[in-house]
Design goal:
Layout (H helix, E strand, L loop, with lengths): L1 H13 L6 H14 L8 H16 L3 H9 L8 H7 L28 E3 L3 E2 L3 E6 L5 H14 L14 E5 L4 H15 L9 E5 L8 H14 L3 E5 L1 H4 L7 H16 L3 E7 L18 H6 L2 E8 L2 E9 L8 E9 L7 E10 H20 L2 E2 H8 L6 H13 L3 E5 L5 E5 L1 H6 L1
Length: 425
């Protein structure tokens, strides 16, 4: 199915500059040479799709021409028609390389497809990056279970449901399996979706190795995976991290998977931050070729608000606004490394700010007993919270009866926690 999708996409692109029957047949012949029947099981379905694609050029003769072309037996079927309709410049010796098209012959731009709406571009190279402890792996595992089950990622973003292949050289399979099961439990999803998530963990995968490349392709074909997760990049590659020439074979391999209808989501560490440096320049540690090859890059950072997510690069689509993922993790009380439940919840930035401000107000009132608004705003200095955030939090907490006030001097309000808030604390 993936190869059929890739073949249909290649034919569509090849026909963009076609102006005549001969152009269309030549485009089909080139695609047919690249995607042979033995390569995938849906060859017949692709042939019917090719007939439909050729109809605008072939005036009712699309079926026999498409069939003969794809069988490699075009021969005398339309030799006269080819000669008659082929422009003089196309009758010149064929160099084997593509000809430049006039801009007027280039079709309209197709909007990019998304595997995860607004986050992960379909059939492209995508990177999640950040410093250690930024929950990069948990974020990609949450995306994996959502895609495998067809559920909205983080309860927010629509997905294209496909099986998923996770290739990890960081965590053992037992840890990954536990995290995946905890996420399914945390979101309340059908555990049967885990049959669509396949894991290669700590098997010594090296992306540059031709043997591993062939095996990964075979596993993609066997599992039907439409999304491949690579975690972490540094452990899956053996070349010098800063050398573009060493990274280019890995990039070419990922792009070859894209051409076959597979989306790649790789996890990498962010580079060191320097004063005056652009965020994009530190987004992916090492060779600049990775930044150039990635179609989307998201930076994750642990903050008091949760996991702050910022889009650093989004090719051919609008960057989504920054947001926060709020982590909810429940561990086994007897075995703290074993998770029972896990969930990452989407929050818009202003929602995360509000939650943090409310927690700040309640924590300080719990510590000091009574504080007026000015004192709370003074305590907030240096915390990252603005005075306006504290004022909004006070108003919200009063509305839901978690705090109340006693009148003070000169109209001041001395805030304190109500019984409901004290029970929670």
């Amino acid at each position: 199915m993936r190869l059929r999708h890739a073949a249909e996409k290649a034919l569509t692109e090849a026909l963009l500059g076609a102006k005549s029957q001969a152009d269309a047949i030549k485009a089909l012949r080139l695609v047919g040479a690249q995607f042979r029947p033995e390569h995938f099981s849906s060859w017949d379905a692709f042939r019917y799709g090719a007939v439909k694609a050729l109809e605008p050029f072939c005036d009712g003769e699309a079926k026999p021409m498409a069939w003969a072309t794809l069988e490699g037996d075009f021969g005398e079927l339309s030799g006269r028609e080819l000669q008659k309709s082929t422009p003089a410049e196309l009758q010149q010796p064929d160099t084997g390389f593509p000809r430049a098209l006039p801009a007027s012959a280039i079709g309209d731009l197709e909007p990019p497809g998304f595997h995860v709406d607004g986050l992960v571009l379909e059939d492209e190279i995508n990177f999640t990056t950040g410093d250690g402890g930024a929950m990069k792996t948990l974020e990609t595992l949450a995306i994996s279970v959502a895609v495998a089950g067809g559920y909205p990622a983080f309860g927010r973003f629509k997905v294209r449901q496909t099986p998923v292949l996770i290739i990890s050289e960081e965590d053992p399979g037992e840890v990954i399996g536990n995290r995946l099961r905890a996420l399914v439990e945390g979101y309340g999803w059908d555990p049967a979706l885990l049959a669509n998530v396949h894991v290669l963990a700590r098997e010594g995968v090296t992306l540059e190795d031709s043997g591993w490349q062939a095996h990964i392709r075979a596993e993609i074909e066997r599992t039907g995976a439409g999304l491949v997760v690579l975690d972490p990049w540094a452990e899956l590659t053996r070349g010098k991290e800063n050398a573009n020439d060493d990274q280019k074979p890995n990039i070419r391999f990922m792009r070859s998977l894209n051409r076959e209808g597979v989306t790649v989501l790789a996890v990498h560490h962010a580079g060191k931050a320097y004063e005056g440096q652009r965020a994009l320049d530190r987004s992916l540690r090492g060779a600049s070729a990775l930044n150039a090859a990635a179609r989307s890059i998201f930076l994750l950072e642990r903050t008091e608000l949760g996991v702050a997510v910022k889009c650093l690069k989004m090719s051919r689509a609008e960057k989504p606004s920054p947001f926060v993922l709020e982590a909810h993790i429940e561990s086994d009380p007897d075995k703290r490394t074993v998770w029972r439940s896990a969930r990452l919840t989407y929050l818009e930035q202003h929602e995360a700010d509000a939650n943090t401000a409310e927690a700040f107000v309640e924590t300080n009132l719990g510590q000091y007993g009574t504080l007026n608004s000015s004192a709370l705003k003074e305590l907030a200095k240096g915390s990252g919270l603005r005075a306006v955030d504290v004022s909004a939090a006070i108003k919200t907490l009063e509305t839901v009866n978690r705090i109340a006030f006693e009148p003070g001097a000169r109209g001041a309000k001395n805030w304190y926690l109500t019984g409901a808030a004290l029970e929670v604390l």
